[in-house]
Design goal:
The chain is α/β, with parallel strands linked by helices. The chain contains 18 helices and 12 strands. It has 4 domains: 148 residues, Rossmann fold, CATH 3.40.50; 135 residues, Glutamyl-tRNA Synthetase, domain 3 (Alpha-Beta Complex); 54 residues, Helicase, Ruva Protein, domain 3; 96 residues, Orthogonal Bundle (Arc Repressor Mutant, subunit A), CATH 1.10.10.350. The chain has a 4-stranded antiparallel sheet. Strands 1-2 form a two-stranded parallel sheet.
Length: 468
């Protein structure tokens, strides 16, 4: 049985789009399920827009997503090189183009020197004299009459009338191949058996199949996946907001959360929350839907929040620290025990690492700011100074800093009726965290501990005196 080989072949002209990440994921899942190979190839023939920096960022994003590859620009392999620019330099595409010309399935076109889009000669003979005299020369594929058919693993049997397809350039005047030509040469020479890609490539497929047929090669099996759509049901693009994997990573989406959500976009599975790596044995490309799916940022956040609460605290803290490094955020310096306690109570209220950072900031750093609505509504209230004095006295005397112990103090302060229970709790909450929305008040006080609580109550007291 032939080894199953799939590839992901991005153009290094920008960041990795979430649609590209989903395509890579489906290819990777099938390769891993079948015990085959997953290949990364860079289609970098757009010299103006391609860059090694974008290539590096794409590879970093794929690794962050949890995908590895068996062959590629960075790891090599026996079917390399894995950059089209390097394959062009080796003459791989030109050699096969000449073979097509010999078969009279392709021909040279010479263009006018003034009007460089105006053809002045087509020939099966190499126009050496024109080339030597600086004329632009391309090689075009000759489309024969008839119909081109193929079976799509998702869409079924598809058929195209060749009369709707004009002859097309396969090698440009600069010597670089065009997409529809290079992809055929690369996929064949690299032994690709399955091509899973977006359905926007359906119109390209008949052109590619014609080249396979002209060269006497078997084509891989194709599956064209519906595109990810924006809220207006048009293909997801920058006009819908940021779409790069790096953007969602920066927002504090976990890689497992993003991969889980992207897998849900079109793949039918019984449960909603899962680790995609655990789904490798059950992945079936036939269970992918043929309908377009809308990208919902709120649903992504919800899925991510579920993962944050399913992880062990140690693992979440590790991810949190790595995210802070990635985003150049200030990293807390504290005992790990305290960090884990803070993470444990704060994660219940949030769905992203960015939200976790915001809600936990005042647990880790003393220079937090008081929210304006807290200052105006509670810290400037007529009861604030008396209530804070009472709170300071009670917490100074507290010996039991368990959740039960801090709850007992808070309820006893409310019973003094200096203010209502809600106002009492909110004044204490805001005084020690600067915020009105936090983890549970009693848990917050217990985790902060005696020294931090007293210091912050004193700070709030001083601010109360200064503002009243």
């Amino acid at each position: 049985m032939t080894e199953v080989r799939l590839r992901f072949a991005p153009s290094p002209t920008g960041y990795l789009h979430v649609g590209g990440a989903r395509t890579a994921l489906f290819n990777w899942l099938y390769a891993r399920k079948m015990g085959g190979k997953f290949i990364l190839r860079m289609e970098d023939t757009d010299l103006q827009r391609s860059s090694r920096e974008f290539e590096r960022m794409i590879m970093e994003a794929l690794k962050w997503c949890g995908m590895d590859w068996d062959e590629g620009p960075d790891v090599g392999g026996k079917f390399g090189p894995y950059r089209q620019s390097e394959r062009t330099a080796q003459g791989i595409y030109n050699d096969h183009a000449k073979l097509l010309v010999q078969k009279e399935r392709a021909y040279y076109t010479v263009y006018d020197k003034v009007d460089r889009k105006k053809p002045i000669l087509t020939t099966y003979e190499y126009p050496k004299e024109h080339v030597d005299n600086g004329y632009d020369v391309t090689i075009s594929f000759k489309v024969l009459p008839g119909r081109t058919k193929f079976h799509d693993l998702l869409k079924g049997d598809l058929e195209f009338d060749n009369s709707t397809i004009e002859d097309f350039v396969i090698v440009k005047s600069d010597g670089f191949p065009t997409y529809n030509y290079a992809v055929v040469i690369d996929d064949h020479l690299m032994g690709i058996t399955h091509v899973f890609r977006g359905e926007d490539h359906v119109p390209n497929t008949p052109k590619q199949l014609m080249i396979y047929e002209a060269l006497g090669w078997d084509a891989p099996q194709f599956m064209h996946i519906p595109l990810i759509l924006g809220s207006d049901r048009t293909p997801l693009s920058k006009r819908h907001g940021a779409t790069a994997v790096e953007h969602f990573r920066g927002l504090g989406i976990l890689s497992r959360g993003l991969m889980n959500y992207l897998a849900l976009l079109g793949w039918s599975v019984e449960e909603e929350i899962f680790n995609v790596k655990e789904k490798i044995p059950s992945f079936d490309p036939h269970s992918i839907s043929n309908k377009g799916v809308v990208f919902d940022p709120q649903k992504l956040e919800w899925v991510n929040g579920k993962h944050m609460r399913m992880m062990s605290i140690q693992e979440l803290w590790h991810e949190f620290v790595e995210w802070m490094k990635y985003t150049n955020k200030r990293i807390p310096v504290c005992e790990e025990k305290y960090a884990l306690e803070v993470t444990a109570i704060c994660r219940e209220k949030v769905n992203t690492l960015a939200q976790l950072y915001d809600i936990s900031y005042s647990f880790f750093f003393q220079d937090f700011n008081y929210e304006e609505n807290f200052v105006n509504e509670y810290l400037r209230a007529s009861y604030a100074e008396d209530l804070l004095k009472a709170a300071l006295k009670s917490f100074e005397e507290l010996k039991d800093w368990s959740i039960e112990g801090t709850e007992k103090v808070c309820r006893s302060l409310a019973e003094l009726q200096i203010a209502s229970k809600n106002k009492t709790f909110q004044l204490i909450r805001g005084s020690v965290t600067g915020k009105l929305v936090t983890p549970g008040l009693f848990e917050t006080l217990s985790v902060l501990g005696r020294e931090r609580v007293l210091e912050r109550l004193n700070r709030a007291m001083n601010l109360t005196k200064a503002t009243n």
